[in-house]
Amino acid sequence: MLESLKREVLEANQALPEYNLVTFTWGNASGYDRDSELMVIKPSGVTYGDLTLEDMVVVNGNGDVVEGSLSPSSDTATHLYLYHAFPEISGIVHTHSPWATSWSQSGKDLPALGTTHADYFHGAVPCTREMRKEEVETDYEMETGKVIAETFKTNHLAPAAIPAVLVHGHAPFTWGTSPREALYHAVVLEETAKMAAYTNMIQPSPAEISPHLLDKHFLRKHGSNAYYGQSGKENKV
Amino acid sequence: MLESLKREVLEANQALPEYNLVTFTWGNASGYDRDSELMVIKPSGVTYGDLTLEDMVVVNGNGDVVEGSLSPSSDTATHLYLYHAFPEISGIVHTHSPWATSWSQSGKDLPALGTTHADYFHGAVPCTREMRKEEVETDYEMETGKVIAETFKTNHLAPAAIPAVLVHGHAPFTWGTSPREALYHAVVLEETAKMAAYTNMIQPSPAEISPHLLDKHFLRKHGSNAYYGQSGKENKV
Amino acid sequence: MLESLKREVLEANQALPEYNLVTFTWGNASGYDRDSELMVIKPSGVTYGDLTLEDMVVVNGNGDVVEGSLSPSSDTATHLYLYHAFPEISGIVHTHSPWATSWSQSGKDLPALGTTHADYFHGAVPCTREMRKEEVETDYEMETGKVIAETFKTNHLAPAAIPAVLVHGHAPFTWGTSPREALYHAVVLEETAKMAAYTNMIQPSPAEISPHLLDKHFLRKHGSNAYYGQSGKENKV
Amino acid sequence: MLESLKREVLEANQALPEYNLVTFTWGNASGYDRDSELMVIKPSGVTYGDLTLEDMVVVNGNGDVVEGSLSPSSDTATHLYLYHAFPEISGIVHTHSPWATSWSQSGKDLPALGTTHADYFHGAVPCTREMRKEEVETDYEMETGKVIAETFKTNHLAPAAIPAVLVHGHAPFTWGTSPREALYHAVVLEETAKMAAYTNMIQPSPAEISPHLLDKHFLRKHGSNAYYGQSGKENKV
Questions:
Q1: D 5-44: CB under 8 A from C
Q2: With left for phi above 0 and alpha for psi between -120 and 50, is residue C139 left, alpha or beta?
Q3: D28/C37 Cα distance (integer angstroms)
Q4: pTM higher than 0.90, yes or no?
């Protein structure tokens, strides 16, 4: 069942330590099949080096396991909520990568300080509000997805234009049209989060780049007028 | 004698450079056998790559060598004091890992700024008070253990809930139910110490996470209601 | 055509990830043949590990491809402008290396804080002014080259004495008498940018080194009285 | 001639990139034979990976080459001055390692903020005063040695108790009773310089450790009452 998607999800998970995005088992990747409304996700607490195709867990929209002998990631309900809230995405990556997690811990949005950021994120990457006591104590993982969706709705942000979020006091989630693209965005987010912190070190409260520079860089890589990369190739990632 | 524990202690010591926790010989791991009241510990000043099973030193409760031809770690008396003071632990790791050591040098507790911290430490990791002249000059290593135990007692902290300490002006100690778990906590401590410093860079004096988020993350990994990982497996590490 | 230059350009591009100067495809190296007025440059969006000699793109002074089946780097017009404006250079490297990019994001010149800097840059590495809306929206890449040339002209800087620039809100460009020398300067720039930020951490607003120390170090490596390295060898790089 | 010393000097130079202390050719190690009053030093501008035993340069007290076909390090006169000024040393290492160099650029002494520092340096590692115009312009490298010796004399510091210095606006030199020990101290200096900067990040203007803790740690590793390591072994390094 969903062998091709399972392989993509497996590979995205295996890539997390290669890109230095995770310590121990602190991260997970998933993929979503919109036809069958099934999600493939990493099993909980299993080391990346030990993962096999058979370990991938398939769950339905309620989070019930429909294939696989292991328990799915404890963050399963967050992933599912995001796939339902953001119809344009088919892959999600969650990590505790150090720089993006530190921005999450600071409670601040990650500002667009340069063109590296603008090449992938069409504006600041938002940090959610703090989660309330009742949200944490009841259906915590589902509520995490809900507060992410709320952040995008309240701020009129498009998930395809800003494929990442910082969960307050927790860590980042990134997404894309495939597990591979979500992974790509996780790497970009960590790199831009690092450079934004470095910039803070050099110049406290640095200015965001101009709207025209933000637009220029985002749109030369994305959309119908993109001209970066080789035509006919997947240019964004 | 204690061959299985010796192997665990050897492996925990060998893992210290693999996890980038030590420079040269700046760290040691030990294990404690509560039945025989004997401790296995790294020999002093020996490089990790050169360590063999036979090099492991077995000492009794007074720190006398009962097996092994090498001198035990110069921190032996600290380890022994902690095994006596904290009956729930059977493994200890001491390193001068850069970020945790820098927090020790700052004299500040390591605050719980995010869920990565909360997944393993149920509150701030305390920094001890400065050691007094007479404590340093007489039985220094034993007194180091004593000031750690005092810190936990004075602040009503449970060693199982906060398996780490920062010794003022010195460096961290971590512990667990095995040498392997103590090693795991040493890696976690370094990672959370790093991210707390990064968070400080981004947002001076950042807020600690809420008590409900702290409880949620610690308790979904620990205790009778834990649901992280695969049931029946060792979920915490 | 230009096989030797192509090889040099290929090798400079392949070295970018080895020196940790790039993530994904975030950088490019080029070489210029002043006799034929042709430039060899990396193709756009191709991974360094996949590059072959045949992939190198040859373009003329208008940026038209005269050899090669792939599209040239999206930064082609910037490279060409610089070769025209700075007749003494024959190699250019552009990266988004983290520390130099962070200085670019800060909008500040990189000051000469030590002799490591003075060994290669005879003064501060300038940051350009912000680019104007119309410059960004029309012929952006060419205008990027223009603002770099303007920065050197306005500040009476010699491209051979300061073989690097920080583009405001974007990232660095470095150059030299060959692609290999441009690469060398990209490594040096990243290292000095890192150390300048570290120095800021230790001592806010640190002083620049004295003019005599700046001259001494630059001139013992460059010019007719240089005495660093082995005589008869390429000493600067 | 001096084959054993040459091998030690070769190995210390080769270890510089392994310990991440150098970029390109930015560092050199030397050894001194007090009987013959000859110094063995790295040739100038040669890459560490290319060095052979035959490349080592032997110079006399005037810096004249007495064996070897290559030019000696441009820092030769600094090394020679230090061997003459500090009779207790027989090995010197100079690098531009990032953290120690950043402290040199800050113009500040490296304070003893923890026991890692105290294990090797019996007090702050001093930064020299700025060098004067005439010192820089005439016999610069010799004058560099002179200002180091002046720093130790003026502040009543013992080179054996503090085997390192930060040259203002330049970079560190470390030394020891052998090239290997000088190398060891270069690694320690970089690590303590890093942790002191990290500590500054966490707690601006952190306090130095108490005199009793400084004494305790330095003296448990050095001198007649040392008890760290295995008796009869070289315990300090």
A1: 23-24, 26, 43-44
A2: left
A3: 42
A4: yes
- Give catalytic status of residue A228 as yes or no: yes
Tell if the CB–CB gap between B131 and D213 is shorter than 8 Å.
Answer: yes
Q: How far apart are CA D26 and CA D48, in angstroms?
A: 10
Domain locations along chain D: 3-221
Which residue is closest to B227 within chain A, CA to CA?
A74
Contact B220, B53 (CB under 8 A): no
Q: Which of C113, C187, C206 is the closest to D23 by Cβ?
A: C187
C-alpha distance from A183 to closest chain B C-alpha (Å)? 20
Mutation target to probe the B interface, by most B beta carbons within 10 A, among D110, D195, D205, D236 is: D195
CATH node for A3-221: 3.40.225.10
Active site (catalytic) residues of B: 119, 228
Question: Are D116 and B169 in contact (CB < 8 Å)?
Answer: no
Instruction: Specify the DSSP class assigned to residue C53.
Output: G
Ramachandran region, residue B99 (left: φ > 0; alpha: ψ -120 to 50; beta: rest)? alpha
Residues in B touching D205 (Cβ below 8 Å) = none
Catalytic residue among D55, D109, D119, D139: D119
CA atoms within a 13 Å half-sphere pointing along the CA-CB vector of D226? 19
What is the band of B230 on the pLDDT scale with cuts at 50, 70, 90? confident
For the residues of chain A, what is the DSSP string, one character each?
A: --HHHHHHHHHHHHHHHHTT--STT-EEEEEEETTTTEEEEPBTT--GGG--GGG-EEE-TT--EEE-SS-B-TTHHHHHHHHHH-TT--EEEEE--HHHHHHHHHT--B---SHHHHTT-SSPBPBPPPPPHHHHHSSHHHHHHHHHHHHHHHTT--TTTS-EEE-TTS-EEEEESSHHHHHHHHHHHHHHHHHHHHHHHHSSSPPPPPHHHHHHHHHHHSSTT--SS-TTS----
Q: Which of B117, B213, B214 would you mutate first to test chain A, the one with the most A CBs within 10 A? A: B213
* pLDDT tens figures, B141-195: 999 999 999 999 999 999 999 999 999 999 999 999 999 999 999 999 999 999 9
